[in-house]
Design a protein that fits this description.
Layout: H1 2-19, H2 21-34, H3 54-70, H4 89-102, H5 106-111, H6 120-134, H7 138-147, H8 156-169, H9 177-183, H10 192-207, H11 214-220, H12 229-242, H13 247-256, H14 265-278, H15 286-292, H16 301-315, H17 320-329, H18 338-350, H19 355-364, H20 373-387, H21 391-396, H22 405-418, H23 425-429, H24 433-441, E1 460-461, E2 467-468, H25 477-483
Antiparallel strand pairs: 1-2
Helix pairs in contact: 1-2, 10-12, 17-19, 20-22
C-alpha cells in the first residue's frame, strides 16, 4: 500500500490544478489534517479503505453513524442504513468539513443525510464546479444544494449537461441559465425527452404558444417544465377556455404571464370564478374579465371582492350591481388600493359634482379611478375655459378624462372648431384617427346614432358589431378580445 500511497500523493498537485478552486479547498483541508499523522496514513480519499468482510463492514457502519451523531448530524429516517458509507472516519470527516465550509449546516445535513454518501471527487466537486461554470456564484451554491440536494448524486455528463442543453434549445439565453436553475433547481432532475418536451409540445402544438416565446416563459416561470400535461396543464387550459376565452387568447396570456399555469384548478381557479359570479359578474363577461386581468384567477378573490364591494357602497354610494358592472369593465378594481380610489372621487366631488353623479360616472367609466389628479385638473380646466361646454356633457361622457389632453383632446377640438362643427364629446373623441379624418372630410354630420362604446386600452365597438381601428384591418373576434385587455 505504501508505494501506491506515495504515488497518489505525488499526483495530488496535478489533480488539484485540473479540478480547479473547489478541489483546492479539499486539498488544503487534507494537508492540515494529515500534517500530524504518520506518513503511512497520508492517503487521499480516492480510496474507501481496505476490503472488509461483513462483520468489519457492520462495525465500520456503527462507528460512522456514531461519529456523525457526535458531530451533530442525525438520521431520523434511517436513510444512511441503506447506503454505502466510507470505511474510514477520516474520509467521512473530510466530507463533513467540506459541506460545512460550503455553507451547509448540520441541520441541513440532518434533513438530507444522504449528502454524506456522496464522494467528493466523483460527485460533489464535479457538480459544484459545473454549476460555477454555468454562472451560479459560490455564495449561492449552499442555497442551491439546500434547495435541491439530490443534484450532488447526479452525473454531470449523463444527468446535468443534457438538461442545460435542452434549456438552451428552448431559446433560454446563456446568461439566464443561472437564474432558471436557482429559481427551479429541480429542473436538473427532469428528463429532456420526458416531462420537459411533453409540456412544451402541448403548449406550442395544442394551446398555440409561439415557439419563440417559450424561452422567455422558461426564464420567468421555469416551474411549468416540471408540470404534467394530463393532470395539471391540460385541465387548467380546458377549464379556462370552457368559460368562453378563445384558446389563442389564452396562448397570448400565457406567453406574458406563464405563472398562471401554477394556479391550482380546484383550490384556486374554480372558487374564484364562482366568487365572480356570486358577486354579480355576468357569465358572458367572464372572458373579458380574465383577458384584461388574468391574475384575478389566482387572488384570494372572495375576500377582496367583499371588501371592495363594501367600500364602494360605503364611500362611493355605488350599490352591488353597479360595483359588478364596474368590475366587468375594469377587473383590476378588486386589487386597487382604496386610497387611490378615493383621490379622483374626491377631486370630482370637490368640483361641485354630486355624490350620485360621481357614482354614475365611476360605474360608466371605472378607468376614472386610475387617472392622475394633475392630468384631470388640466383636462377639466381646458373643458371649462376653452371648450366652455356645460358640465352635463362631462357627466354623460366621463371617458373624457381618460384621453390625452395634448395628443387627442386639444388637436381634435381645434379641428372641429375650425370647421364650425357642433358635436358631442363622444363623437369627436371616441374614434380612431382614421375615422376622425373621414368625419372631418364628410359633407354632413352623422345622425344621433350611439357612438362607439368605450373600452380603455383597445379597439372600439361600434353599434352593429362594426369595428373601428387605426389601420381599419379586418380582425377576428379573438384578436379584438385580446386587444381590449387593459395592461397595468
Amino acid at each position: 500500500m505504501l508505494p501506491l500511497a506515495r504515488a497518489l500523493r505525488s499526483l495530488a498537485p496535478a489533480a488539484v490544478a485540473r479540478e480547479g478552486p473547489l478541489l483546492a479547498w479539499l486539498s488544503s483541508a487534507r494537508s492540515a489534517s494529515s500534517a500530524a499523522a504518520p506518513p503511512e496514513y497520508e492517503m487521499p480519499s480516492v480510496t474507501w479503505g481496505v476490503i472488509q468482510g461483513r462483520k468489519e463492514r457492520l462495525v465500520s457502519r456503527v462507528l460512522a453513524l456514531d461519529f456523525l451523531r457526535s458531530a451533530g448530524v442525525s438520521d431520523p429516517a434511517g436513510e444512511l442504513e441503506a447506503v454505502e458509507l466510507p470505511s474510514s472516519l477520516e474520509v467521512l470527516q473530510e466530507r463533513l468539513d467540506f459541506l460545512l465550509r460550503l455553507g451547509l449546516s448540520t441541520d441541513d445535513l440532518s434533513d438530507y443525510p444522504l449528502l454524506l454518501a456522496c464522494s467528493l471527487r466523483k460527485n460533489v466537486i464535479p457538480v459544484l464546479s459545473y454549476l460555477e461554470k454555468l454562472g451560479v456564484t459560490r455564495a449561492r451554491l449552499a442555497a442551491f444544494v439546500r434547495a435541491y440536494p439530490a443534484c450532488l448524486h447526479a452525473s454531470v455528463a449523463v444527468d446535468l449537461s443534457p438538461v442545460v442543453k435542452a434549456l438552451r434549445g428552448l431559446d433560454v439565453d446563456r446568461q439566464d441559465i443561472p437564474r432558471v436553475l436557482e429559481r427551479y433547481p429541480d429542473v436538473l432532475g427532469l428528463k429532456p425527452d420526458g416531462t420537459i418536451s411533453t409540456s412544451v409540445a402541448y403548449l406550442v402544438g395544442i394551446v398555440g404558444v409561439a415557439p419563440r416565446d417559450i424561452g422567455p416563459m422558461v426564464t420567468h416561470y421555469p416551474f411549468f417544465l416540471g408540470m404534467r400535461v394530463g393532470t395539471k396543464i391540460k385541465p387548467l387550459c380546458d377549464y379556462i377556455t370552457s368559460l368562453g376565452l378563445p384558446m389563442r387568447i389564452l396562448a397570448r396570456i400565457l406567453e406574458k404571464r406563464p405563472y398562471i399555469l401554477g394556479y391550482d384548478l380546484e383550490e384556486m381557479v374554480k372558487p374564484n370564478v364562482e366568487a365572480l359570479l356570486s358577486f354579480g359578474i355576468q357569465k358572458e363577461a367572464l372572458p373579458l374579465v380574465i383577458a384584461q386581468y388574468p391574475t384575478i384567477l389566482g387572488l384570494p378573490l372572495k375576500a377582496k371582492l367583499a371588501a371592495q364591494q363594501y367600500f364602494f357602497n360605503l364611500k362611493l354610494q355605488i350599490d352591488p350591481d353597479g360595483f359588478a358592472r364596474a368590475v366587468e369593465k375594469l377587473p383590476q378594481l378588486v386589487s386597487l388600493n382604496q386610497n387611490v380610489i378615493l383621490k379622483p372621487v374626491e377631486f370630482l366631488r370637490g368640483r361641485g359634482i354630486s355624490n350620485e353623479d360621481v357614482a354614475r360616472m365611476v360605474v360608466r367609466c371605472p378607468q376614472l379611478l386610475l387617472q392622475r389628479i394633475e392630468l384631470m385638473k388640466n383636462s377639466l380646466y381646458f373643458f371649462k375655459s376653452e371648450m366652455k361646454r356645460p358640465m352635463s356633457e362631462l357627466l354623460e361622457y366621463p371617458e373624457y378624462f381618460t384621453y390625452s389632453l395634448e395628443s387627442r383632446i386639444k388637436p381634435r377640438y381645434m379641428r372641429v372648431t375650425s370647421k364650425g362643427i357642433r358635436c358631442s364629446l363622444d363623437w369627436f373623441l371616441n374614434c380612431s384617427d382614421l375615422r376622425f379624418e373621414e368625419r372631418m372630410r364628410g359633407d354632413f354630420i352623422e345622425g344621433d346614432a350611439p357612438g362607439p362604446s368605450f373600452t380603455m386600452g383597445g379597439k372600439l365597438q361600434m353599434p352593429g358589431s362594426q369595428l373601428v381601428s387605426d389601420d381599419d384591418n379586418e380582425d377576428t373576434d379573438d384578436e379584438v378580445l385580446y386587444r381590449r385587455t387593459v395592461m397595468l
